[in-house]
Amino acid sequence: MTIKGMAYIAGAFEHPTRKAPDKSVAALHAECAKGALEDAGLNFSDVDGYFCAGDAPGGVLSMVDYLGLNVRHVDGTDTGGSSYIAQVSHAAQAIAAGKCNVALITMAGRPRSEGRSGVKQKRVGANVPDTPFELPFGPTAVNEYAMAAMRHMHEYGTTSEQLAWVKVAASHHAQYNSNAMLRDLVTVEEVVSSTMIADPLHKLDCCVVSDGGGALVIVRPEIAKSLKRPLVRVMGAGEAPKGLLGGKTTLTYSGAIWSGPRAFEEAGVTPQDIKYASIYDSFTITVLMQLEDLGFCKKGEGGKFVTDGNLISGIGKLPINTDGGGLNNNHPASRGGIVKVIEAVRQLRGEAHPRVQVENCDIALAHGTGGGLASRHGSATLIMERV
Amino acid sequence: MGTTFHDRSMTIPEIHPEHKEYWDAAAQGKLLIKQCDSCREFHYYPRVLCPHCMSEKTNWVEAKGTGNIYTYSVMRRGVPYAIAFVELDEGPRMMTNIVDCDLDKVHINQRVKVVFKQSGDENNPGPFIPCFTPVEG
Fold this sequence. Notes:
heterodimer; A: alpha/beta; 5-stranded mixed beta sheet; 12 helices; 11 strands; B: mainly beta; CATH 2.40.50.840; 5-stranded antiparallel beta sheet; 1 helix
Protein backbone atom coordinates (compact mmCIF):
# COMPACT_ATOMS: atom_id res chain seq x y z
CA MET A 1 0.00 0.00 0.00
CA THR A 2 1.19 3.51 -0.73
CA ILE A 3 -0.12 6.79 0.61
CA LYS A 4 0.64 8.56 -2.67
CA GLY A 5 -2.48 10.45 -3.68
CA MET A 6 -4.56 8.83 -0.94
CA ALA A 7 -4.94 11.95 1.23
CA TYR A 8 -4.98 15.74 0.97
CA ILE A 9 -4.00 18.48 3.39
CA ALA A 10 -7.23 20.47 3.45
CA GLY A 11 -6.67 22.70 6.46
CA ALA A 12 -3.63 24.36 7.99
CA PHE A 13 -3.44 26.90 10.79
CA GLU A 14 -0.55 28.46 12.70
CA HIS A 15 -1.54 30.21 15.90
CA PRO A 16 -0.49 33.88 15.68
CA THR A 17 0.57 34.11 19.34
CA ARG A 18 4.21 33.86 20.36
CA LYS A 19 3.57 34.50 24.06
CA ALA A 20 0.44 33.22 25.77
CA PRO A 21 0.74 33.43 29.58
CA ASP A 22 -3.03 33.78 29.96
CA LYS A 23 -4.05 30.71 27.97
CA SER A 24 -3.87 27.06 28.94
CA VAL A 25 -2.07 24.63 26.65
CA ALA A 26 -5.35 22.81 26.06
CA ALA A 27 -7.04 26.06 25.04
CA LEU A 28 -4.24 26.73 22.54
CA HIS A 29 -4.80 23.25 21.08
CA ALA A 30 -8.51 24.01 20.74
CA GLU A 31 -7.88 27.37 19.04
CA CYS A 32 -5.51 25.71 16.60
CA ALA A 33 -8.02 22.95 15.87
CA LYS A 34 -10.74 25.53 15.21
CA GLY A 35 -8.42 27.54 12.98
CA ALA A 36 -7.45 24.58 10.82
CA LEU A 37 -11.02 23.31 10.48
CA GLU A 38 -12.23 26.80 9.49
CA ASP A 39 -9.39 27.03 6.97
CA ALA A 40 -10.57 23.74 5.44
CA GLY A 41 -14.26 24.66 5.62
CA LEU A 42 -15.09 21.77 7.93
CA ASN A 43 -16.61 21.45 11.42
CA PHE A 44 -15.59 19.65 14.62
CA SER A 45 -18.40 17.17 13.92
CA ASP A 46 -16.69 16.17 10.65
CA VAL A 47 -13.55 14.97 12.47
CA ASP A 48 -13.35 11.19 12.88
CA GLY A 49 -9.60 10.82 13.45
CA TYR A 50 -7.45 12.68 15.99
CA PHE A 51 -3.68 12.92 16.30
CA CYS A 52 -1.49 14.57 18.93
CA ALA A 53 1.93 14.09 20.57
CA GLY A 54 3.73 14.71 23.85
CA ASP A 55 2.86 18.41 24.02
CA ALA A 56 -0.86 17.60 24.32
CA PRO A 57 -1.79 17.72 28.00
CA GLY A 58 -3.25 14.37 29.05
CA GLY A 59 -2.58 12.92 25.61
CA VAL A 60 -5.14 11.59 23.19
CA LEU A 61 -7.76 10.78 25.82
CA SER A 62 -7.83 14.17 27.54
CA MET A 63 -7.68 16.07 24.26
CA VAL A 64 -10.45 14.10 22.53
CA ASP A 65 -12.61 14.69 25.60
CA TYR A 66 -11.65 18.38 25.88
CA LEU A 67 -12.31 19.08 22.21
CA GLY A 68 -15.62 17.20 22.31
CA LEU A 69 -14.63 14.94 19.42
CA ASN A 70 -16.39 11.79 18.35
CA VAL A 71 -13.62 9.85 16.62
CA ARG A 72 -12.99 6.28 15.48
CA HIS A 73 -9.23 6.52 15.06
CA VAL A 74 -6.52 8.06 17.29
CA ASP A 75 -2.72 8.23 17.17
CA GLY A 76 -0.39 9.59 19.86
CA THR A 77 2.93 8.99 18.09
CA ASP A 78 5.64 11.03 19.78
CA THR A 79 8.96 11.53 18.04
CA GLY A 80 9.61 15.00 19.45
CA GLY A 81 9.33 17.95 17.10
CA SER A 82 9.09 15.67 14.07
CA SER A 83 5.90 14.00 15.38
CA TYR A 84 3.45 16.06 13.36
CA ILE A 85 5.24 15.46 10.06
CA ALA A 86 5.08 11.72 10.76
CA GLN A 87 1.45 12.06 11.77
CA VAL A 88 0.48 13.48 8.37
CA SER A 89 1.77 10.21 6.95
CA HIS A 90 -0.03 8.20 9.63
CA ALA A 91 -3.26 10.10 8.91
CA ALA A 92 -2.88 9.36 5.20
CA GLN A 93 -2.32 5.68 6.02
CA ALA A 94 -5.41 5.61 8.24
CA ILE A 95 -7.49 7.29 5.53
CA ALA A 96 -6.18 4.88 2.88
CA ALA A 97 -7.08 1.96 5.16
CA GLY A 98 -10.60 3.28 5.68
CA LYS A 99 -10.06 4.00 9.38
CA CYS A 100 -11.09 7.67 9.13
CA ASN A 101 -12.07 10.36 6.63
CA VAL A 102 -11.15 13.62 8.34
CA ALA A 103 -8.02 13.56 10.51
CA LEU A 104 -7.21 16.45 12.83
CA ILE A 105 -3.63 16.96 14.08
CA THR A 106 -3.05 19.54 16.83
CA MET A 107 0.00 20.76 18.70
CA ALA A 108 0.59 23.65 21.12
CA GLY A 109 2.66 24.68 24.10
CA ARG A 110 3.97 27.53 26.21
CA PRO A 111 7.70 27.01 26.84
CA ARG A 112 8.26 30.79 26.76
CA SER A 113 5.69 31.56 29.43
CA GLU A 114 6.83 28.58 31.48
CA GLY A 115 10.50 29.65 31.37
CA ARG A 116 11.85 26.61 29.57
CA SER A 117 14.79 26.79 27.21
CA GLY A 118 17.36 24.77 25.37
CA VAL A 119 20.13 25.41 27.91
CA LYS A 120 18.24 23.71 30.72
CA GLN A 121 18.43 20.03 31.48
CA LYS A 122 15.82 17.97 29.69
CA ARG A 123 12.79 16.74 31.62
CA VAL A 124 12.51 12.96 31.63
CA GLY A 125 10.32 10.32 33.20
CA ALA A 126 11.26 7.28 35.29
CA ASN A 127 12.64 3.98 33.98
CA VAL A 128 14.00 5.42 30.74
CA PRO A 129 16.88 3.04 29.98
CA ASP A 130 19.43 5.55 28.72
CA THR A 131 19.08 8.33 31.30
CA PRO A 132 21.40 6.87 34.01
CA PHE A 133 24.23 7.04 31.47
CA GLU A 134 23.47 10.53 30.21
CA LEU A 135 21.72 12.84 32.70
CA PRO A 136 24.71 13.20 35.07
CA PHE A 137 26.64 14.79 32.18
CA GLY A 138 24.21 17.66 31.69
CA PRO A 139 22.88 17.07 28.19
CA THR A 140 20.62 19.88 26.96
CA ALA A 141 19.14 20.63 23.58
CA VAL A 142 21.89 23.06 22.67
CA ASN A 143 24.99 21.18 23.80
CA GLU A 144 23.80 17.99 22.09
CA TYR A 145 23.40 19.72 18.73
CA ALA A 146 26.66 21.55 19.46
CA MET A 147 28.52 18.23 19.77
CA ALA A 148 27.18 17.21 16.36
CA ALA A 149 28.29 20.57 14.93
CA MET A 150 31.75 20.23 16.49
CA ARG A 151 32.29 16.82 14.90
CA HIS A 152 30.90 18.00 11.55
CA MET A 153 33.39 20.89 11.59
CA HIS A 154 36.21 18.47 12.43
CA GLU A 155 35.40 15.96 9.68
CA TYR A 156 34.30 18.28 6.89
CA GLY A 157 35.81 21.66 7.68
CA THR A 158 32.41 23.28 8.16
CA THR A 159 32.75 26.80 9.61
CA SER A 160 30.72 29.01 11.95
CA GLU A 161 30.36 31.49 9.08
CA GLN A 162 28.73 28.81 6.93
CA LEU A 163 26.32 27.88 9.73
CA ALA A 164 25.53 31.58 10.10
CA TRP A 165 24.19 31.72 6.54
CA VAL A 166 21.29 29.51 7.66
CA LYS A 167 20.31 32.16 10.21
CA VAL A 168 20.83 34.98 7.70
CA ALA A 169 18.37 33.28 5.31
CA ALA A 170 15.83 32.81 8.12
CA SER A 171 16.05 36.46 9.09
CA HIS A 172 15.68 37.50 5.46
CA HIS A 173 12.37 35.61 5.26
CA ALA A 174 11.12 36.60 8.72
CA GLN A 175 11.20 40.32 7.93
CA TYR A 176 8.04 39.77 5.84
CA ASN A 177 6.19 37.72 8.49
CA SER A 178 4.30 40.06 10.84
CA ASN A 179 3.81 37.23 13.34
CA ALA A 180 7.49 36.24 13.47
CA MET A 181 9.12 36.53 16.88
CA LEU A 182 12.35 37.99 15.45
CA ARG A 183 12.06 40.21 12.36
CA ASP A 184 15.41 41.99 12.17
CA LEU A 185 17.80 41.14 9.36
CA VAL A 186 21.09 39.80 10.65
CA THR A 187 24.49 39.42 9.00
CA VAL A 188 26.99 36.56 9.14
CA GLU A 189 29.19 38.80 11.27
CA GLU A 190 26.38 39.40 13.77
CA VAL A 191 25.71 35.66 14.09
CA VAL A 192 29.31 34.66 14.71
CA SER A 193 29.86 37.51 17.17
CA SER A 194 26.71 36.76 19.18
CA THR A 195 27.14 35.21 22.64
CA MET A 196 28.61 31.71 22.66
CA ILE A 197 26.09 29.35 24.29
CA ALA A 198 27.70 25.93 23.84
CA ASP A 199 30.78 25.69 21.58
CA PRO A 200 30.49 26.06 18.61
CA LEU A 201 26.87 27.28 18.67
CA HIS A 202 26.20 30.98 19.30
CA LYS A 203 22.96 32.51 20.50
CA LEU A 204 21.94 33.27 16.91
CA ASP A 205 22.56 29.65 15.88
CA CYS A 206 19.65 28.68 18.15
CA CYS A 207 15.91 28.76 17.47
CA VAL A 208 13.49 30.97 19.36
CA VAL A 209 11.59 29.78 22.43
CA SER A 210 7.98 30.61 21.64
CA ASP A 211 4.46 29.84 22.81
CA GLY A 212 1.85 28.91 20.25
CA GLY A 213 0.88 25.97 18.15
CA GLY A 214 -0.68 24.77 14.95
CA ALA A 215 -3.08 22.28 13.47
CA LEU A 216 -3.62 20.36 10.23
CA VAL A 217 -6.64 18.68 8.68
CA ILE A 218 -5.95 15.67 6.45
CA VAL A 219 -8.84 14.33 4.39
CA ARG A 220 -9.89 11.70 1.87
CA PRO A 221 -9.56 12.85 -1.80
CA GLU A 222 -13.33 13.09 -2.43
CA ILE A 223 -13.73 15.37 0.57
CA ALA A 224 -10.80 17.60 -0.47
CA LYS A 225 -12.34 18.04 -3.92
CA SER A 226 -15.68 19.10 -2.37
CA LEU A 227 -14.00 21.92 -0.43
CA LYS A 228 -13.10 25.38 -1.69
CA ARG A 229 -9.40 25.39 -0.84
CA PRO A 230 -6.49 24.78 -3.28
CA LEU A 231 -5.65 21.09 -3.46
CA VAL A 232 -2.49 19.88 -1.71
CA ARG A 233 -1.90 16.16 -2.05
CA VAL A 234 0.36 13.85 -0.05
CA MET A 235 2.93 12.21 -2.35
CA GLY A 236 5.20 10.23 -0.05
CA ALA A 237 6.67 10.00 3.40
CA GLY A 238 9.47 8.36 5.33
CA GLU A 239 10.35 7.96 8.99
CA ALA A 240 13.47 6.87 10.85
CA PRO A 241 14.47 7.08 14.48
CA LYS A 242 18.21 7.23 15.13
CA GLY A 243 19.98 6.67 18.44
CA LEU A 244 23.45 5.98 19.76
CA LEU A 245 23.68 2.56 18.09
CA GLY A 246 24.87 0.67 21.15
CA GLY A 247 28.08 2.68 21.28
CA LYS A 248 28.77 2.69 17.51
CA THR A 249 27.79 6.32 17.81
CA THR A 250 28.15 8.65 14.81
CA LEU A 251 27.00 12.24 15.10
CA THR A 252 27.68 13.57 11.61
CA TYR A 253 24.47 12.32 10.03
CA SER A 254 20.81 12.15 11.04
CA GLY A 255 17.98 9.71 10.43
CA ALA A 256 17.20 11.73 7.31
CA ILE A 257 19.60 9.48 5.41
CA TRP A 258 16.91 6.79 5.81
CA SER A 259 13.64 8.75 5.95
CA GLY A 260 14.53 10.89 2.92
CA PRO A 261 15.08 8.11 0.36
CA ARG A 262 11.91 6.35 1.58
CA ALA A 263 9.87 9.50 0.99
CA PHE A 264 11.45 10.28 -2.40
CA GLU A 265 10.89 6.71 -3.57
CA GLU A 266 7.23 6.71 -2.59
CA ALA A 267 6.67 10.13 -4.15
CA GLY A 268 8.54 9.17 -7.32
CA VAL A 269 10.58 12.38 -7.31
CA THR A 270 14.15 13.43 -6.52
CA PRO A 271 15.62 16.33 -4.53
CA GLN A 272 16.00 18.23 -7.83
CA ASP A 273 12.18 18.26 -8.18
CA ILE A 274 11.63 20.04 -4.85
CA LYS A 275 10.74 23.73 -5.40
CA TYR A 276 10.44 24.60 -1.71
CA ALA A 277 11.58 22.82 1.45
CA SER A 278 10.71 23.27 5.11
CA ILE A 279 13.80 22.01 6.92
CA TYR A 280 13.69 21.68 10.70
CA ASP A 281 15.81 24.46 12.16
CA SER A 282 16.14 23.92 15.88
CA PHE A 283 19.73 25.03 15.30
CA THR A 284 21.68 26.08 12.23
CA ILE A 285 23.59 22.78 12.23
CA THR A 286 20.30 20.87 12.07
CA VAL A 287 19.52 22.45 8.69
CA LEU A 288 22.96 21.93 7.26
CA MET A 289 23.08 18.26 8.20
CA GLN A 290 19.55 17.51 6.99
CA LEU A 291 20.20 19.15 3.60
CA GLU A 292 23.14 16.77 3.15
CA ASP A 293 21.28 13.74 4.44
CA LEU A 294 18.23 14.39 2.24
CA GLY A 295 20.48 14.57 -0.83
CA PHE A 296 20.21 18.28 -1.67
CA CYS A 297 24.02 18.26 -1.68
CA LYS A 298 26.79 15.76 -1.03
CA LYS A 299 27.75 14.74 2.52
CA GLY A 300 30.19 17.25 3.92
CA GLU A 301 29.26 19.95 1.41
CA GLY A 302 26.38 21.44 3.39
CA GLY A 303 28.52 24.37 4.46
CA LYS A 304 29.23 25.34 0.87
CA PHE A 305 25.59 24.71 -0.13
CA VAL A 306 24.03 27.10 2.41
CA THR A 307 26.49 29.95 1.76
CA ASP A 308 25.82 33.16 -0.17
CA GLY A 309 22.07 33.17 0.27
CA ASN A 310 21.41 29.85 -1.46
CA LEU A 311 18.47 29.22 0.91
CA ILE A 312 16.82 32.64 0.37
CA SER A 313 13.66 32.74 -1.73
CA GLY A 314 14.19 34.60 -5.00
CA ILE A 315 17.98 34.50 -4.61
CA GLY A 316 19.10 30.96 -3.92
CA LYS A 317 18.58 27.58 -5.55
CA LEU A 318 16.66 26.04 -2.63
CA PRO A 319 14.34 28.38 -0.73
CA ILE A 320 13.67 26.99 2.75
CA ASN A 321 11.60 28.08 5.76
CA THR A 322 10.08 31.12 4.08
CA ASP A 323 8.11 31.94 7.24
CA GLY A 324 11.39 32.59 9.06
CA GLY A 325 11.49 29.08 10.49
CA GLY A 326 12.21 28.09 14.04
CA LEU A 327 15.23 30.37 14.05
CA ASN A 328 13.12 33.52 13.62
CA ASN A 329 9.41 32.87 13.35
CA ASN A 330 8.13 30.23 15.73
CA HIS A 331 9.10 27.03 17.55
CA PRO A 332 5.93 26.39 19.55
CA ALA A 333 6.26 23.98 22.47
CA SER A 334 9.90 23.58 21.36
CA ARG A 335 8.48 21.32 18.66
CA GLY A 336 8.50 22.88 15.23
CA GLY A 337 7.30 20.11 12.96
CA ILE A 338 3.77 21.28 12.40
CA VAL A 339 4.88 24.77 11.35
CA LYS A 340 7.11 23.11 8.78
CA VAL A 341 4.10 21.46 7.12
CA ILE A 342 1.99 24.63 7.42
CA GLU A 343 4.51 26.81 5.54
CA ALA A 344 4.89 24.12 2.85
CA VAL A 345 1.10 24.14 2.42
CA ARG A 346 1.13 27.96 2.13
CA GLN A 347 3.78 27.72 -0.58
CA LEU A 348 1.90 25.03 -2.53
CA ARG A 349 -1.34 27.03 -2.31
CA GLY A 350 0.45 30.21 -3.42
CA GLU A 351 -0.48 31.81 -0.09
CA ALA A 352 3.00 32.57 1.24
CA HIS A 353 3.97 36.23 1.62
CA PRO A 354 4.42 37.62 -1.92
CA ARG A 355 8.02 38.58 -1.17
CA VAL A 356 8.91 34.96 -0.36
CA GLN A 357 6.42 33.01 -2.49
CA VAL A 358 8.25 30.53 -4.73
CA GLU A 359 7.15 30.73 -8.38
CA ASN A 360 5.41 27.64 -9.75
CA CYS A 361 5.69 25.89 -6.42
CA ASP A 362 4.22 22.53 -7.37
CA ILE A 363 6.23 20.11 -5.20
CA ALA A 364 7.38 20.79 -1.65
CA LEU A 365 9.08 18.86 1.14
CA ALA A 366 8.82 19.13 4.91
CA HIS A 367 11.40 17.43 7.08
CA GLY A 368 11.74 17.23 10.84
CA THR A 369 14.41 16.17 13.32
CA GLY A 370 12.82 15.82 16.74
CA GLY A 371 14.67 15.01 19.95
CA GLY A 372 18.41 15.11 20.48
CA LEU A 373 20.90 14.95 17.64
CA ALA A 374 23.53 13.53 20.02
CA SER A 375 21.24 11.04 21.73
CA ARG A 376 17.99 9.94 20.10
CA HIS A 377 15.92 11.70 17.47
CA GLY A 378 13.06 10.99 15.15
CA SER A 379 13.40 11.90 11.47
CA ALA A 380 10.30 12.42 9.37
CA THR A 381 10.14 13.42 5.71
CA LEU A 382 6.95 14.40 3.88
CA ILE A 383 6.60 15.28 0.20
CA MET A 384 3.49 17.12 -1.05
CA GLU A 385 2.25 18.42 -4.38
CA ARG A 386 -0.18 21.03 -5.62
CA VAL A 387 -2.81 19.44 -7.81
CA MET B 1 43.20 32.80 31.07
CA GLY B 2 41.34 29.74 29.90
CA THR B 3 38.17 28.32 31.39
CA THR B 4 38.90 26.59 34.68
CA PHE B 5 36.98 23.43 35.50
CA HIS B 6 34.74 23.68 38.55
CA ASP B 7 32.98 20.75 40.17
CA ARG B 8 29.23 20.95 39.70
CA SER B 9 26.40 18.92 41.16
CA MET B 10 25.75 16.03 38.77
CA THR B 11 22.24 14.60 38.54
CA ILE B 12 21.92 11.37 40.55
CA PRO B 13 21.19 8.56 38.10
CA GLU B 14 18.34 6.10 38.57
CA ILE B 15 19.78 2.69 39.42
CA HIS B 16 18.17 -0.01 37.30
CA PRO B 17 18.40 -3.65 38.49
CA GLU B 18 20.62 -4.76 35.61
CA HIS B 19 23.26 -2.13 36.39
CA LYS B 20 24.12 -2.97 40.01
CA GLU B 21 27.58 -4.35 39.09
CA TYR B 22 28.30 -1.27 37.01
CA TRP B 23 27.65 1.18 39.85
CA ASP B 24 29.41 -1.01 42.44
CA ALA B 25 32.51 -1.09 40.22
CA ALA B 26 32.30 2.68 39.64
CA ALA B 27 32.48 3.21 43.42
CA GLN B 28 35.83 1.36 43.28
CA GLY B 29 37.11 3.41 40.37
CA LYS B 30 36.46 0.80 37.69
CA LEU B 31 34.59 1.32 34.42
CA LEU B 32 32.61 -1.73 33.31
CA ILE B 33 31.30 -2.22 29.79
CA LYS B 34 29.47 -5.16 28.28
CA GLN B 35 30.75 -7.65 25.74
CA CYS B 36 28.65 -10.21 23.90
CA ASP B 37 29.83 -13.83 23.92
CA SER B 38 27.94 -14.54 20.71
CA CYS B 39 29.05 -11.74 18.38
CA ARG B 40 32.07 -10.61 20.50
CA GLU B 41 30.99 -6.96 20.09
CA PHE B 42 31.28 -4.49 22.97
CA HIS B 43 28.34 -2.23 23.63
CA TYR B 44 27.50 0.81 25.72
CA TYR B 45 25.37 1.71 27.67
CA PRO B 46 25.07 -1.79 29.16
CA ARG B 47 22.05 -3.98 28.36
CA VAL B 48 20.91 -7.48 29.30
CA LEU B 49 20.50 -8.35 25.61
CA CYS B 50 23.23 -7.39 23.14
CA PRO B 51 21.94 -4.49 20.96
CA HIS B 52 24.03 -5.76 18.05
CA CYS B 53 22.78 -9.36 17.89
CA MET B 54 20.09 -9.72 20.62
CA SER B 55 21.98 -12.53 22.36
CA GLU B 56 21.47 -12.77 26.12
CA LYS B 57 25.10 -13.89 26.54
CA THR B 58 26.43 -10.51 27.59
CA ASN B 59 29.23 -10.21 30.14
CA TRP B 60 30.78 -7.41 32.14
CA VAL B 61 34.32 -6.52 31.17
CA GLU B 62 36.52 -3.95 32.89
CA ALA B 63 37.48 -1.30 30.33
CA LYS B 64 41.05 -0.03 30.26
CA GLY B 65 39.58 3.37 31.01
CA THR B 66 41.44 5.19 28.26
CA GLY B 67 40.30 6.61 24.96
CA ASN B 68 40.07 9.63 22.67
CA ILE B 69 37.59 12.50 22.54
CA TYR B 70 35.20 11.94 19.60
CA THR B 71 33.39 15.25 20.09
CA TYR B 72 32.62 17.75 22.86
CA SER B 73 30.98 21.05 23.66
CA VAL B 74 31.66 23.49 26.48
CA MET B 75 28.45 24.92 27.93
CA ARG B 76 28.97 28.63 28.53
CA ARG B 77 25.77 29.32 30.49
CA GLY B 78 26.09 28.96 34.25
CA VAL B 79 29.05 26.96 35.64
CA PRO B 80 30.94 25.95 32.48
CA TYR B 81 31.23 22.23 31.81
CA ALA B 82 32.37 20.09 28.91
CA ILE B 83 30.00 17.40 27.68
CA ALA B 84 31.65 14.92 25.33
CA PHE B 85 31.64 11.54 23.68
CA VAL B 86 34.78 9.54 24.33
CA GLU B 87 35.75 6.62 22.13
CA LEU B 88 37.05 3.94 24.47
CA ASP B 89 40.07 1.93 23.35
CA GLU B 90 37.72 -1.08 23.30
CA GLY B 91 35.57 0.68 20.65
CA PRO B 92 32.32 1.98 22.11
CA ARG B 93 31.69 5.74 22.28
CA MET B 94 30.13 6.98 25.51
CA MET B 95 28.65 10.26 26.70
CA THR B 96 30.70 11.81 29.50
CA ASN B 97 32.18 15.02 30.89
CA ILE B 98 35.77 16.18 30.46
CA VAL B 99 36.97 17.33 33.90
CA ASP B 100 39.89 18.67 35.95
CA CYS B 101 41.47 20.66 33.12
CA ASP B 102 41.37 23.96 31.22
CA LEU B 103 38.10 23.55 29.31
CA ASP B 104 39.34 25.86 26.54
CA LYS B 105 42.06 23.34 25.65
CA VAL B 106 39.73 20.37 25.19
CA HIS B 107 39.87 19.10 21.60
CA ILE B 108 38.76 16.25 19.35
CA ASN B 109 41.16 13.24 19.34
CA GLN B 110 42.60 14.34 22.70
CA ARG B 111 43.86 11.38 24.72
CA VAL B 112 41.89 10.95 27.97
CA LYS B 113 41.54 8.58 30.93
CA VAL B 114 38.62 7.85 33.22
CA VAL B 115 38.18 9.57 36.59
CA PHE B 116 35.14 9.17 38.79
CA LYS B 117 33.12 12.06 40.25
CA GLN B 118 30.41 11.57 42.83
CA SER B 119 26.92 12.64 41.74
CA GLY B 120 24.55 14.60 43.99
CA ASP B 121 25.95 16.84 46.73
CA GLU B 122 27.21 16.69 50.33
CA ASN B 123 23.73 16.29 51.78
CA ASN B 124 22.57 13.80 49.19
CA PRO B 125 25.53 11.93 47.68
CA GLY B 126 24.86 9.64 44.75
CA PRO B 127 26.79 7.04 42.73
CA PHE B 128 30.21 7.74 41.21
CA ILE B 129 30.07 8.75 37.56
CA PRO B 130 32.72 7.99 34.90
CA CYS B 131 34.21 11.26 33.64
CA PHE B 132 37.43 11.69 31.67
CA THR B 133 40.44 13.92 32.03
CA PRO B 134 43.30 14.61 29.60
CA VAL B 135 46.31 12.31 29.85
CA GLU B 136 49.48 14.29 30.59
CA GLY B 137 52.06 14.66 27.84
